[in-house]
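re: that complex we talked abt at group meeting.

here r the seqs, copy pasted straight from the sheet so there may be weird spacing, ignore it
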Amino acid sequence: ILNVEQSPQSLHVQEGDSTNFTCSFPSSNFYALHWYRWETAKSPEALFVMTLNGDEKKKGRISATLNTKEGYSYLYIKGSQPEDSATYLCASDEKLTFGTGTRLTIIP
Amino acid sequence: DSGVTQTPKHLITATGQRVTLRCSPRSGDLSVYWYQQSLDQGLQFLIQYYNGEERAKGNILERFSAQQFPDLHSELNLSSLELGDSALYFCASSVEAGLIYNEQFFGPGTRLTVL
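got the structure back, here u go
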């Protein structure tokens, strides 16, 4: 992996269902991995900054895991709610390169 | 509300012109970061200042420059504007100096349109 990549590009999830998506990043020279939530017409909001392999962080119904050796992080949302609809961005490397995001839409 | 303020909210100008975007960080934050979000690209880091000094540089064009003043507010100057400079410009701030390790708080952005 040469760049920060996110998948899927977009996702529709039924309210109440749980979901997850992926951020892949270069595993060499790893520094930190950031997750942000970006709601339409608002500015990005920090969710997590993760630095250690095996790190798991949680904020309410949202959690994230980190595997620095294989270069990926998962973001999980449990029991999706309409307010979770947003674009989720991850960023990594020494220049804090951002992925293009996963656009999540929760269907009521 | 993150506590980071940016002015103006919208700016419309012509090619070849010069504009200045302004950012005030959260109270107590010493680092200011500038980002560009254009339609065809993701969020791109431009430059970081920490306590008045340039700290890290990203994909910032030579036509762009920034500075951070003693009161910690920052300005991003964009000159010889081109159509492709039309974008949403975000400012973010954090307490500490490290670009990579610190949670950043984003302002509402300035939408620049170059005609």
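couple things i noticed - The two ends of chain B are 31 Å apart (CA to CA). The first strand of chain B starts at residue 5 and ends at 7.
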